[in-house]
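Running this now, will post back.
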Amino acid sequence: MRSRLGLALVALVSFTGLDAARAADLDARVALPVSRTSGTMRVDGVLDDDGWKGATPIDTWYESNPGDNLPAKVGNVGYVVYDERFFYVGLVFEDPAPGSIRAPFADRDNVSSATDYGGVILDTRNDGKTAVQFLANPRGIQYDAISDDSTDKEDNAPDFFWDSAAQLTKTGWTLEIRIPFSSLRYAKADPKTWGIMLYRNYPRDFRYRFSTNRIPHGSPCFVCTSNKIEGLTGLPSGGHLVLAPYVNGRQSAVPEGDLGTPLDNGPLDGDVGLDVKWTPLADTAIDGTVNPDFSQVESDVALIGANERFALFYPEKRPFFLEGLDLFSTPIQALYTRTITSPRFGLRGTGRVGSSSFTALVAQDRGGGSVILPGPNESSLADQESRSLVAVSRVRHDLGTSFVSVLASDREESGGNAYNRVAGPDFQWRPNDIDRITGQFLMSWSRTPQRPDLADEWDGRSLHGHALDVYWLRNTKTYDLAAEYRDFGDGFRADNGFVPQVGYRQTYVEPGYTFWPKQGLVRRLRTYLILDREVDRDGDLLTRIVSPGFGLDARWNSFARVRWAFSRVRAGDAKQTLPRSQLIFTVQTSPASFLTDVAIEGTVGREVDFENVREGRGGDLKVGGSVRPTDHLELRVDTGRRWLNVDVPGRAAPRLFTARVERLKATYTFTARSFLRVIAQHVDTTRDPSLYTDVVARREGSVDVSALFAYKLNWQTVLFAGYGDNRARDDDERWQRGGREFFVKLSYAFQR
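Update: finished.
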């Protein structure tokens, strides 16, 4: 394996030709005009204030989707100015059919690609790697996110203080954006140069993407294509402070005894806490929290766990952990802040010195969650019953478009009896505009708790191990190639991360070729082949996959990805592998303003019963979509169904289990600041106990209903009032009340 990886790297160094057309596009980046204004500015969506007078119009825009940097098919004009406190962007978007503008009311960040929106994307550190998106739709509904070229991810979990207002007009719509410099992180140098992209999403027969910069088809990066603005002077040097105290009250009721007994109303509980953010320098933020409250976070969508080998991943949504979130993202997910289940307090610093970025976090976790116990072919969970002190940090040093980095993580159980420590470097090297090599090497040292009652390996033993990930991506307009090698020791643990599999080596290769039709229903068609092989530390096969497929972008804002996977997979402890062949598919479309984000995805075919080690046939199907009867009301439906019929001698493929999830979310948005949301979620699993080697329940299920009213002046000044109700099946399979809760929360952000 190692020799093959070395040959691949040699081949990479000898094969670094540059796509000439794309290089020309990147070299064509120009500086956009920006001017300092002394006029008054009112953010109302109408660009008639004195502050806009004299601003230079930016009217050269490109269509980068579906076209390849063609002139924009509709008119777009932008203006950029600033004063001593704020950065302003004004946008005028023409539309030949204003009645077709998709402009629903929604909660913050609920702005999908199926709707009209526009705004600005700022690379204030001018590193060509990360940028903050400030986007809004024609109702002024805000969407902010972090774009990270080093991981190809866009994360809308972080929120920022900024203002926006929009107006629908007879010829299209207009948008004004005001961003406080205190919401941005930038270097001390004066004058400053930033990366900037003015952007518009225009979904009609296709999803059109317009911007002031060229974004070549097949580009390996997004932020790196930005234009520049130069000459920003006299910006604030820091000193911004935000204090956001909260108070909440709640009353919970739980069964007096076993499920089915009457509910016992608990006392009315109250709680207080505080979030603090201080920016002593314009490029440094210090966050603190005491007794944080996360009641405003929407409940996770239930995931089906039946016949799953590894732990399921849920994204982070809690505000305290989201400053500089891109610095927690590495090839090996050694940092996953949801492992800090119930922090009593937390302190975090994030900043940049010269070409180096850093983040460091310390928190006390009261426990109550779960710890992943990984293995080569499956993982399990153990209850986290003890308190612990958590410390994580990462420092990244930029070298042009490349970087090197070091990560450290520590979790110490209260009392000092158990710990998990992880450390190691990672890097990303971009030798040219089409190649990217990313790698990470980590070592871990652990002592497990003295709790064999919770997990067999928790007997105080010492563990240590390594983890290696090297990934190469070559991306051009027509062809691409991805190759990855992973090597994890048996004793590697990352209790502050999400690493559900250890004790294996993996080799992955995926070549692809893309066609770009200029006419017709399809505007992008990519064909590819996946070759994937995993072995354990003894070299015995875990998984082998050969999977040809294709993906396409088409009319009605649609996307499809279909492949057939022929594989062998290990099941059980006897190191035997079983065949599995599946059709794997994803189809998404948004055909109209009243019907958006419709998605069907799943797998069907020959499957493996991992719990009982035998072959079978089954499927996993998910269907979802949003219906908007009016611009204020959204009904979101998500359903999932997984089933498995097994091969049993003398029986005609009996059904082992059927697992279902149904979720309905109804949201009525009164204004950009207030909404009422109701969620109903049903989870149900039916099994045939006679087909299992272990004792299992014949049927399990739950029904959860919640209602929430929210009023938001901004993302931290909020009023929430809610109700939750839970029902579950008892041993006799009858629905019984499992609990209920009323709560109210008030939080206010004081800024100075």
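The first helix runs from residue 2 to 14. More later if anyone needs it.
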